[in-house]
Amino acid sequence: MKIVHEIMYKVEVLYVLCVLLMGRQRNQVHKMLADFRLIPGLNNLFDKLIWRKYTATNHVVHGQNENCDCSPEISFKIQFLRLLQSFSDHHENKYLLLNSQELNELSAISMKANIPEVEALVNTDRSLVCDGKKGLLTRLLTVMKREPPDSSFRFWQARAVESFLRGATSYADQMFLLKRGLLESYFDLLGELMKFNIDAFKRFNKYVNTPEKFEAFMTQINSSLVDSNMLVRCIVLSLDRFESQTEDVKVVEVLSECCLLSYMARVESRLSFLFRLINIINVQTLTQENVSCLNTSLVILMLARRKAKLPFYLNALREKEYAEKYPGFLLNNFHNLLRFWQRHYLNKDKDSTCLENSSCIPFSYWKETVSVLLGSDRTSLCAIASYIDEPFMDLDRDLLED
């Protein structure tokens, strides 16, 4: 009982730190935790306390079922992973999770690629980083690769690693993790690893090097689009950037050879994803987990608008409705979702900044595109209302009541 109480006390401490790191005084808390060398301390405890393996000779705090997610030991580890996620997410202090040698490796990756080091890396106080042969992120990667697919921890481990990549995309960060064999990972993490990184797509193409493997991968994406939509967004955004870099021989080569990029380059593929992204959510069923589907559908349409193809996509949605014998259903639903989007994102600076950083599309263009789509002028070819026949109009119905 003493061991159980001790572990639960540590769970509560980690929980409080997570809450503070997500609060309004986040930067102040970050500075204090960094100055107190929290991350090097956790790194030193990782093998001995956080991720030690219990055996029959020492106490197993699992109760009757050692795989129970509610056991104190598992709660402790999950809360630890959530703390790492909160610490790394969109914050320059994330490099404290590495040691000096690993920081040098990031610098070498940037130098070899002839790109400048990110400012956060340059500004990292090396007296506050991890000690020893491995930093905390590398230790986490090691245990993550050992965890079985059905492990209670693997999801949270992937979330913690993903948070290290979130924010402004860093080629060096991506290559640092790719070199450690992370292509077999969760969809969100895979998306962050590959976004705008032509070398990552080249590596991935070798991984799905047969039609059977590629088909199996696409089946996984299509069977759980709520989970995989961030990866779809990454592919769409990356393809758009690569198509503007046709002077780069390597980019042209990968564009022609990569089955994933070739698949997404087909307009029917993007339309297929757009249909389903809009169809699987509505205002009543929106959650923090599936609202990203709405943003992914917007990314597809924003890129289409840049190329003056927005009317083509909206008309395709209309034709899909009639083909499915549900005229007005998709477009009315999308109209209501975009009204929700305006209410949510136009009042939240942090959320809007995350959208801008993750997509490299100015938030002003997000707002402008949504405004154009919601336009009331039925003669506008870029307004949703223009594609809904009068008998099926449902735009006055307010589905956004508090």
UniProtKB/TrEMBL annotation:
GO cellular component term of the entry, any: Cul4A-RING E3 ubiquitin ligase complex
UniProt key word Cytoplasm: no
Gene behind the chain: TRPC4AP_1
UniProt keywords, alphabetically: Receptor
Name this protein carries in UniProt: Short transient receptor potential channel 4-associated protein
GO molecular function terms attached to this record: phosphatase binding
Pfam families hit by this protein: DUF3689
Swiss-Prot/TrEMBL GO biological process terms: ubiquitin-dependent protein catabolic process
Protein's organism: Liparis tanakae (Tanaka's snailfish)
